[in-house]
Write a structure and sequence with these properties.
alpha+beta, seven-stranded mixed sheet, four-stranded antiparallel sheet, elongated
Length: about 220
């Protein structure tokens, strides 16, 4: 580090040197040089995982935006932390090579679908209604639902593309059904390539959902 005696004040990087003020005096030091040479395999792996982490965080934010109305009923300022952890878990379910794994890919697997179905967005665990599964069959959504107490709830169909950050949603009216009896709803959207179809159940203090799967027996 050296001192600078000049009629002009200089600050910032000039060439290979950095000028700045220290204790009222202008000083100069050589700028740190960048390491050259190819990255090691460990560095490449870390870079790829950081890329995946960024995409998973973005997917979590996207999901919260798409479900803003439902999330507002939870009154939880730390919801983003739990959703971010869920997104990372879903990403890890994707069987693609490291660097190419996505939340959307994870949701195509049985493991990822189970992780979402078992995830409760609310922090306080109570005996809330829960979707057990949702199957798309001939234009209808065939649901299995666990009823709890007499809690009021709404069902929202969400079609979302985590990569392009586009989504659309449709809130369903509920038919009169007996508790424990499977029932059907008219699907709000036709399946669209690149999008994941989710069905969410929500109410005061709770939110949970499942991936809509196609009926393989049709």
């Amino acid at each position: 580090m050296g001192k600078v005696h000049s009629l002009f004040e200089i600050s910032g990087k000039v060439g290979d040197y950095v000028f700045y003020e220290l204790n009222g005096q202008q000083v100069i030091r050589k700028a740190p040089s960048k390491k050259k040479g190819p990255k090691t395999e460990a560095q490449k792996s870390v870079a790829l995982q950081n890329t995946e982490f960024g995409k998973a965080s973005s997917a979590g934010k996207m999901l919260r935006v798409a479900l803003a109305e439902e999330c507002s009923q939870l009154h939880d300022r730390y919801l983003y932390q739990r959703v971010s952890k869920l997104m990372l878990r879903l990403k890890s379910c994707d069987g693609a090579p490291i660097g190419s794994r996505t939340v959307q890919g994870g949701l195509t697997t049985a493991e990822g679908q189970a992780a979402l179905a078992n995830f409760h967005f609310q922090k306080v665990q109570k005996n809330f209604p829960q979707l057990l599964n949702a199957v798309y069959r001939q234009g209808n959504l065939c649901l299995s639902l666990f009823f709890a107490k007499d809690a009021d709830f709404a069902i929202t169909e969400l079609q979302i593309n985590f990569e392009t950050r586009k989504f659309r949603r449709y809130k369903h009216g509920l038919p009169e059904v007996e508790k424990g009896t499977p029932f059907s709803l008219k699907k709000g959207f036709r399946h669209k390539k690149g999008f994941t179809d989710l069905l969410m159940i929500s109410g005061a203090g709770f939110l949970q959902g499942v991936v809509v799967t196609a009926d393989r027996n049709k």
